[in-house]
Write a structure and sequence with these properties.
Strand order of the largest sheet: 2-3-1-4
Number of helices: 2
Low-confidence stretches: none
Distance between the termini: 14 Å
Order of helices and strands: EHEEHE
Number of domains: 1
Helix content: 25-40%
CATH architecture: 2-Layer Sandwich
Structural class: alpha+beta
Length: about 90
């Protein structure tokens, strides 16, 4: 499954969330990641994120699609990371 993950966590938890997301997905922008994950990997990411987050203040949003071909991506401005090889 193609996943776009976006998180918003307190500054003291940002390094841990960044490291977690980089384990599963490709970094494309501050707090934004994309990539292909299995259903099991998505569940693992969710469970590991909950261990880091304070769910009363922090958030993780997962946009899911069956395949990245169903998504159109348009970049305006400079890309922070080369994503040409992923889409």
């Amino acid at each position: 499954m193609y996943v776009i993950a976006v998180y918003d966590v307190a500054a003291e938890r940002t390094p841990k969330m960044l490291k977690l997301c980089r384990r599963y997905l490709h970094w494309i922008q501050n707090s934004v990641f994309e990539g292909e994950l299995s259903e099991l990997q998505i569940k693992e990411l969710e469970l590991d994120a909950k261990k880091i987050m304070d769910e009363s203040h922090d958030s993780l949003i997962l946009f899911k699609s069956r395949h990245f071909h169903y998504m159109e991506k348009q970049l305006v401005g400079k890309s922070l990371n080369d994503t040409d090889s992923f889409l």
